[in-house]
Design goal:
The chain has 167 residues and is mainly β. The protein has one helix at 3-19, and strands at residues 40-42, 58-61, 67-69, 74-82, 85-93, 96-106, 113-114, 119-123, 134-141, 144-146.
Length: 167
Amino acid sequence: MRPAARILISVFVGVALVTTPVARGVVAATGWTWPVVGPVIRGFDLPDDPYGPGHRGIDIAAPVGTTIVAPADGTVAFAGPVGGHLFLTIDHGGGVSSTYSWLTANLVRKGAAVTRGQPVAVTGWGHPGALVPHLHFGVKLNGDYVDPFAYLGPLSLAAFVRLASTP
């Protein structure tokens, strides 16, 4: 299968995932805003132990340089490099925080108050070696990673539809 075909299949599968969170058995608890608009190309996979293999968030396809917005009000707990790559963490209170990985720029600093929908960072390529640029988005509850779909509101299919202009 050609790479372009794989990307299109991933986009269509991702659209199905992000537009049907209830069908996946997840009900949005808070209705957070999506940090970027795009299909989910890799889902959450809780590891068996804190150091085991898994995927501690979701990967949302987005072109490099896409503005990331805060999904909910909070305070920036961390904004900086880890192992030569930029990361961001927002503390939303009540033991809940959101994490953003593989960034090209942070638009906020540690300690800054942020509001829902406020630009906070810019996407990079995503996981090293990934075929599609994306944002890795994670959510922690009391220090443990949880499925971000439990916090995100539904994403309208209209966000993916581009209508051609008529003359």
